[in-house]
């Protein structure tokens, strides 16, 4: 544990630490966009949208528990961490406790999924089941996605395409061309959160045999990936307008461009623990972008 970090003083605080609440905007942002597109298309339904949000948050928390315990079991958290405290590695919770918490959280997500199955059909159930399997397979199982350079694809699919389109689908029972386009920048911005995480941990991951995409590309390659994903994310709204897929008000997303200034600087100059602030700011950028995109769709 970082010597400057004070350990939590209660069991509830420990579980809150394990849940990693700072990651939850990445789960909420795509649901917000999916709901806003549904509003624009005249198919918005409040209860399915709220259920999709709750399900996304539970899946994110369950995935955080899974990453905590399975990284510990695989030895990826050996030595001093550059990122936030892991409760299993630090001994705040036992592996059995964290794994139990993971299964209970996924069980709650499944209960939400039952309601979404009723209102949205088997397509929604398939998305939910695939999300749980992928969340566990990210760091668990015989071929963990995150250890083999597939984490970025996983994040793009499940925090972009599945979350945005799935939210729309439970309300409309179909998926429009617009919502598929809207899902792309959300997936790319969520992926950038992982890019910063893996850039920060590139040396420790390499030493632990964790072959993330950042390890494979190297520091310069990961930085270039970050920039490309940003550029594409901000290009999508400008393409949607002339294609007749979105109103001109989606250009409100560009109001978030000033937030990129420090990110652009830090991604090329900061290293190690200093990238924790960059990671948090990247997550904040995704949420602000999502809110502005959603506002643009609603106003349009």
Report on the architecture of this protein.
This protein has 300 residues and is an all-alpha fold. The chain folds into two domains: 120 residues, no CATH class; 125 residues, UbiA prenyltransferase (Four Helix Bundle (Hemerythrin (Met), subunit A)). It is built from eleven helices and no strands. Helix 2 packs parallel to helix 6. The model has no long low-confidence stretch (mean pLDDT 90).
Based on the model shown, name its key terms.
0% strand, globular, Four Helix Bundle (Hemerythrin (Met), subunit A), 300 residues, mainly alpha, 2 domains
Write the layout of secondary structure elements.
Blueprint: H1 11-19, H2 24-40, H3 46-73, H4 95-120, H5 122-137, H6 151-172, H7 177-200, H8 202-207, H9 213-240, H10 260-269, H11 275-299
Helix pairs in contact: 2-3, 2-6, 2-7, 2-11, 3-4, 3-5, 3-6, 4-5, 4-6, 5-6, 6-7, 7-9, 7-11, 10-11
């Amino acid at each position: 544990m970082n010597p400057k970090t004070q350990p939590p003083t209660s069991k509830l605080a420990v579980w809150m630490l394990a849940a990693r609440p700072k990651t939850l905007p990445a789960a909420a942002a795509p649901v917000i966009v999916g709901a806003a597109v549904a509003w624009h298309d005249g198919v918005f339904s409040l209860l399915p949208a709220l259920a999709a949000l709750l399900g996304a948050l539970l899946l994110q928390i369950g995935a955080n528990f899974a990453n905590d315990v399975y990284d510990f079991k695989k030895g990826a958290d050996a030595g001093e961490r550059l990122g936030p405290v892991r409760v299993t590695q630090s001994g705040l919770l036992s592996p059995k406790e964290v794994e139990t918490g993971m299964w209970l959280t996924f069980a709650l997500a499944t209960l939400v999924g039952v309601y979404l199955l009723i209102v949205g059909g088997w397509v929604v159930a398939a998305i939910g089941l695939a999300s749980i399997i992928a969340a566990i397979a990210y760091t668990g199982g015989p071929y963990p996605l995150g250890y083999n350079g597939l984490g970025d694809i996983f994040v793009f699919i499940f925090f972009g395409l599945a979350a945005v389109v799935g939210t729309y689908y439970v309300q409309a029972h179909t998926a429009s061309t617009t919502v598929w386009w809207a899902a792309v920048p959300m997936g790319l911005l969520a992926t950038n959160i992982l890019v910063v995480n893996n850039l920060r941990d590139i040396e420790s991951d390499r030493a632990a045999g964790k072959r993330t995409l950042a390890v494979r590309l190297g520091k310069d390659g990961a930085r270039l990936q970050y920039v490309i994903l940003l550029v594409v994310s901000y290009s999508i709204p400008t393409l949607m307008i002339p294609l007749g897929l979105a109103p001109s008000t989606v250009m409100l997303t560009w109001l978030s461009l000033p937030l990129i200034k420090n990110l652009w600087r830090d991604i090329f100059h900061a290293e190690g623990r200093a990238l924790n602030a960059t990671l948090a700011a990247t997550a904040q950028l995704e949420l602000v972008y999502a809110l502005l995109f959603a506002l643009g769709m609603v106003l349009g």
